[in-house]
Amino acid sequence: MTHIVSEACIRCKYTDCVDVCPVDCFREGPNMLVIDPDECIDCAVCIPECPVNAIFAEEDTPKDQIPYIKLNAELAQLSSWKSITKRKAPLPDADDWKDKTDKLKELVR
């Protein structure tokens, strides 16, 4: 199994999780992070680090977030989504977006 980044990350992109990842499995897009399922070792150290609770073990993914399992796998393979290994500042308006839902339409690929 692997872990996934869910909708809560869109337009926030807090990167606290990348500092603790022992295998550097996070990939960075314009306004979201994803986890490369081929790299994730299912250690779960990233889950408590996410300030918006956007990370789930695949088997614990809420039903409304299940499409993000496939989305993480797809986006992680895009050459434009590069590995991120060091914490960066969140997006400038992250605090405005952190509690919003239905953000898939906001995803920039």
Account of the 3D structure:
The chain has helices spanning 16-20, 67-76, 94-97; strands spanning 3-5, 26-28, 33-35, 55-57, 82-83. It has 109 residues and is α+β, with helices and mostly antiparallel strands. The chain has one domain (3-86): 2-Layer Sandwich (Alpha-Beta Plaits), CATH 3.30.70.20. The protein has a three-stranded antiparallel sheet, covered by helices on one side. Strands 1-4 form a two-stranded antiparallel sheet. It is globular. The model has no long low-confidence stretch (mean pLDDT 97).
Helix and strand composition category: alpha+beta
- The strand order across the widest sheet is 3-2-5
Output the CATH class name. Alpha Beta
Low-confidence stretches: none
Give the integer mean of the pLDDT values.
97
Question: Could you please say which CATH topology applies here?
Answer: Alpha-Beta Plaits
How many helices in DSSP terms? 3
H/E element string?
EHEEEHEH
What portion of the residues fall into strands of 2 or more residues?
5-15%
CA-atom Rg in angstroms: 12 Å
Q: Helical amount among residues, as a percent range?
A: 10-25%
Question: Biggest β-sheet: count, sense, barrel?
Answer: 3 strands, antiparallel
Number of extended strands: 5
Which term fits the overall shape? globular
The number of domains: 1
What's the CATH architecture? 2-Layer Sandwich
Termini, distance in Å? 25 Å
What is the chains' assembly state? single chain
